């Protein structure tokens, strides 16, 4: 399978988006880490107070090496825990640090909770509840069924 972006990052990096999401997977995260444009875009999102979201390998592989969130609490893929400073690591499925507007999640099994939290942050808990109720699944970490 081949996935193609709707537009290259160079064409959209300066856009007025509310959130940037870094998906996981070690190979993809390594490409992100090595992309000056991507790293600068993430830093700009952070500096401008917009949400940065990263899942799986992305927190340890992209955010930490570039010291983008030196005080942000985060989680990530459990086998990469040693790459995240102990004082920042949270052993939770999804971590939202409102101080720095950083959302992180552990991996594929937490992706739905991660997505629901993004919906919650962008359009509200009620919409996240509405979406969760259509997924026919057990309540996640944020318990959108309540």
From TrEMBL:
Gene Ontology CC annotation, any one: cytoplasm
Domain DJ-1/PfpI residues, every copy: 1-120
CDD domains: GATase1_DJ-1 (cd03135)
TM helices/strands, residue ranges: none
Superkingdom of source: Bacteria
One Pfam family in the UniProt entry: DJ-1_PfpI
Name of the protein described by the UniProt record: Chaperone protein YajL
Species name: Shigella flexneri K-315
Higher taxonomy: Bacteria, Pseudomonadati, Pseudomonadota, Gammaproteobacteria, Enterobacterales
């Amino acid at each position: 399978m081949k996935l193609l972006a709707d537009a290259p990052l160079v064409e959209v990096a300066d856009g007025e988006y509310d959130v940037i999401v870094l998906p996981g997977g070690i190979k993809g995260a390594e490409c992100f880490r090595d992309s000056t444009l991507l790293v600068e875009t993430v830093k700009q999102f952070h500096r401008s107070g917009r949400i940065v979201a990263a899942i799986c390998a992305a927190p340890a592989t992209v955010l930490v090496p570039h010291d983008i969130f030196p005080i942000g609490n985060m989680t990530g893929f459990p086998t990469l825990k040693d790459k995240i400073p102990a004082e920042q690591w949270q052993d939770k499925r999804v971590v939202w640090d409102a101080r720095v507007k950083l959302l992180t999640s552990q991996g594929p099994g937490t992706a739905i909770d991660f997505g629901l939290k993004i919906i919650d942050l962008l359009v509200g808990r009620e919409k996240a509840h509405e979406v969760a109720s259509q997924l026919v699944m057990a309540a996640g970490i944020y318990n959108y069924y309540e």
